[in-house]
Amino acid sequence: MNPALQQLAVEDLSLFGRDPWWLVVVKAVFCFAFLMVTVLFSIVWERKVVAWMQLRIGPNRHGPWGMLQSLADGVKLMLKEDVIVRRADKVVYVLAPIVAAIPAFMAVAVIPFGPAGNEVSVFGHRTTMQLTDLPIAVLYILAVASVGIYGIVLAGWSSGSTYPLLGGLRSCAQMISYEIAMGAAFASVFLYSGSMSTSTIVEAQHDRWYVLLLPVSFLIYIATMVGETNRAPFDMPESEGDLVGGFNTEYSSIKFAMFMLAEYVNMVTVSAVATTLFLGGWRAPYPVSSFWEGANHGWWPMLWFVIKVQLLLFFFIWLRGTLPRVRYDQLMKLGWKVLIPVSVTWLMLVATVRALRNENYDFQDIVLYVGGGVLGILLLSLLADVFRDRDGRRGAAPAEGPPPFDPMAGGFPVPPLPGQELPPVPRRGPRRDRELIVSGGVDALSDGKEADGGV
Question: Among the entry's GO cellular component annotations, what is one (predicted)?
Answer without folding.
Answer: plasma membrane
